[in-house]
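Fold description:
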Amino acid sequence: MNENIILIGAGLGQMQTNCYIAGNRQTKEALVFDPGDEGYRVMEMLEKEGLELTAVLLTHGHFDHVMALPYLQEQKPGLPVYLHEDEEDVLREPSLNLTSMFGEPVSMDADHLVKDGQILDLLDTEIHCIHVPGHTKGGVCYYFKEQGWLIAGDTLFRQSIGRTDFPTGDTDALLSGIREKLFVLPDETEVYPGHMNSTTIGLEKRTNPFLMQP
């Protein structure tokens, strides 16, 4: 296992959305997942760790996961942004990314549209893209297979799941996607959700009330 790869996180903004930074201490490259707000804090965390921001990866397009993106793009012109291909219009359309509901409408675009099952070769490790629609139609989890980490966004929480009552949500798709695509991962896989504390795949299989089999 590449022991140079690290993962740190912080809750940002009034929604306390978990933003994660994955970095390679050897190459000094870093990826930011879901920069929800307070972009200056993201840059401070990177500076503290001696890391250089090279890309942003979004689990989905909701406002509380993306509002620091313009700030980061100002600090790093040409910064690549990754998003699932089915989520492109969610990020772009204020009525879908919920900025029109919770504040000033904002439209954003991604540079790289990933597919289900695609493997990204970043940070000198492999990051697997797992499409799990339901919270939004293009929700994607990022699985660091070698490290045993899953950046889950608002798909799977500790003993809960993402809400499905926003535009493009689908409860049945979310539940089946979690069971079929996430619960097949090793039980010891650490799950890092968009809100609240981390958990493991094994714990959720045993105790998540939304997903326990009758």
Notes: The first helix runs from residue 39 to 49. Residues 5-207 form a domain with the Metallo-beta-lactamase; Chain A fold (CATH 3.60.15.10). Helices lie at 39-49, 69-75, 88-92, 94-97, 99-102, 171-182, 201-207. Residues 36 and 67 are 5 Å apart (CA to CA).
